[in-house]
């Protein structure tokens, strides 16, 4: 039951935030780099990532020691803060700061999980790659605008 709760909550909150802060005309008018993915890429990528992140959170919850679970919640808060800071507040600099902290938290989760639950650590690797790419993309958009 906890596995379902972690995955449904992670995916559901992520999709809710994405739906209420979808790209608008402000975003459309921004200068973007050539490597900016087309809009259709984001929903399937985030769906897959949120499912893996939810499973990793559940695995962290099952551990008796709570450090990993705390890091998981911190990175989720940062993850959920990026979209509104970028798309609702239109604050690219704030979004850049949030995503840099998110990348640090994701890497910290992997580092901590590797000795406690390797499956949880490996579930976060694609997420780390995507967040690193999103950090570069956010930085480049900030520089161009």
Structural topology:
Elements: H1 2-20, H2 25-29, H3 42-62, H4 67-88, H5 92-116, H6 118-144
Helix pairs in contact: 1-3, 1-4, 3-4, 3-6, 4-5, 5-6
Q: Which keywords apply here?
A:
single chain; 145 residues; Ferritin; transmembrane helix; membrane
What does this structure look like?
The chain crosses the membrane at residues 41-61, 68-87, 93-114, 121-142. InterPro entries: TspO/MBR-related_sf, TspO_MBR. It is built from 6 helices and no strands. The model has no long low-confidence stretch (mean pLDDT 96). With 145 residues, it is mostly helical. 82% of the residues lie in helices and 0% in strands. It has a single domain, classed as Up-down Bundle (Ferritin), CATH 1.20.1260.100.
Q: Brief description of this entry?
A:
The protein is mostly helical.
Which consecutive residue ranges, at least 5 long each, have pLDDT under 50? none
What is the global morphology? globular
Strands, count: 0
Instruction: State the share of residues found in helices, binned by percent.
Output: over 70%
Query: Number of helical segments?
Result: 6
Give the distance, in angstroms, between the N- and C-terminal Cα atoms.
Answer: 46 Å
Look at the helices and sheets and give the structural class: mainly alpha
Under CATH, the topology can be stated as: Ferritin
For this structure, what is the CATH homologous superfamily?
A: TspO/MBR protein
CATH architecture: Up-down Bundle
Number of domains: 1
Instruction: Report the order of strands and helices.
Output: HHHHHH
Q: What does the largest sheet look like?
A: none
The overall average pLDDT, rounded, is 96
Q: Any idea what the radius of gyration is? A: 15 Å
Q: What top-tier CATH class fits best?
A: Mainly Alpha
Please state roughly what percent of the residues sit in beta strands, choosing from under 5%, 5-15%, 15-25%, 25-35%, 35-45% or over 45%.
under 5%
């Amino acid at each position: 039951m906890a596995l379902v709760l972690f995955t449904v909550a992670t995916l559901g909150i992520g999709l809710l935030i994405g739906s209420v802060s979808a790209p608008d005309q402000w975003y459309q008018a921004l200068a973007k780099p050539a490597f900016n993915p087309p809009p259709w890429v984001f929903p399937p990528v985030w769906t897959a990532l949120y499912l893996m992140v939810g499973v990793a959170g559940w695995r962290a919850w099952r551990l008796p020691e709570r450090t990993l679970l705390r890091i998981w919640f911190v990175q989720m808060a940062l993850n959920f803060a990026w979209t509104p800071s970028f798309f609702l507040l239109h604050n690219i600099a704030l979004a850049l700061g949030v995503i840099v902290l998110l990348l640090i938290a994701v890497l910290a989760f992997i580092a901590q999980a590797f000795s406690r639950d390797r499956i949880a650590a490996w579930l976060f690797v694609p997420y780390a790659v995507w967040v690193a790419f999103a950090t570069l993309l956010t930085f480049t958009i900030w520089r161009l605008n």
